[in-house]
């Protein structure tokens, strides 16, 4: 099936995939843009998984100061090259993560940071504690349909480099 250039352009804008790849996938799925997006997302996740073993030593610190300057957060977001660290997409991701930290106040970066003592002390189930207090497992404050880890995986696929949240800190007046 031949697909229109407008449909190819729409898929490209929504996913960031190459024109030829968009055209080929749309032809495979007979112009169903939602199926095409799902296929591209799966390919991106597979590609991202291959990149996670690469070392990420470049990056930047995303900062968000909430209105009134009573609460703020900083997130160290790392990637492989300074070229990617300077892209608008990477800077936006870092600052969005800092805004998320201000909003949801996670206590831990990853599931690996949760010990049995922490679970016992919290009085919550391990799963509930992870969902509520682990940054990478939390639903993103601006789009609860995706977790922070899913956002990172999508960014890895889009930017072509390993991306890692190294650490974060949240400051609040009086806390």
TrEMBL record:
Cite the Gene3D superfamilies for this sequence. DNA helicase RuvA subunit, C-terminal domain, Elongation factor Ts, dimerisation domain
Instruction: Spell out the PROSITE patterns in the cross-references.
Output: EF_TS_2 (PS01127)
Question: Where is the protein localized?
Answer: Cytoplasm
Q: Which domain of life is it from?
A: Bacteria
Give the protein's biological function.
Answer: Associates with the EF-Tu.GDP complex and induces the exchange of GDP to GTP. It remains bound to the aminoacyl-tRNA.EF-Tu.GTP complex up to the GTP hydrolysis stage on the ribosome.
Quote the PANTHER family the UniProt record gives: ELONGATION FACTOR TS, ELONGATION FACTOR TS, MITOCHONDRIAL
User: Which family does the entry's similarity section mention?
Assistant: Belongs to the EF-Ts family.
Q: Would you tell me the protein name for this molecule? A: Elongation factor Ts
| Species the sequence originates in | Candidatus Chloroploca asiatica
Q: Taxonomy-wise, where does this protein's organism fall, top ranks first?
A: Bacteria, Bacillati, Chloroflexota, Chloroflexia, Chloroflexales
Instruction: Give the gene symbol.
Output: tsf
């Amino acid at each position: 099936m031949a697909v229109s250039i407008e449909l190819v352009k729409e898929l490209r804008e929504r996913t960031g995939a190459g024109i030829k790849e968009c055209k080929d996938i749309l032809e495979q799925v007979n112009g169903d843009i939602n199926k095409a997006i799902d296929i591209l997302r799966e390919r991106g996740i597979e590609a991202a998984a291959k990149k996670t073993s690469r070392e990420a030593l470049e990056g930047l610190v995303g900062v968000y100061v909430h209105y009134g300057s009573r609460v703020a957060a900083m997130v160290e977001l790392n990637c492989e090259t300074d070229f990617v660290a300077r892209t608008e997409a990477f800077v936006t991701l870092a600052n969005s993560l800092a805004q998320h930290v201000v909003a949801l106040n996670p206590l831990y970066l990853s599931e690996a940071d949760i010990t049995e003592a922490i679970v016992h002390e919290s009085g919550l189930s391990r799963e509930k504690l992870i969902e509520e207090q682990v940054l990478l497992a939390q639903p993103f404050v601006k789009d609860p349909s995706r977790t922070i880890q899913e956002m990172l995986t999508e960014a890895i696929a889009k930017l072509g480099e390993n991306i890692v949240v190294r650490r974060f800190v949240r400051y609040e007046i009086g806390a």
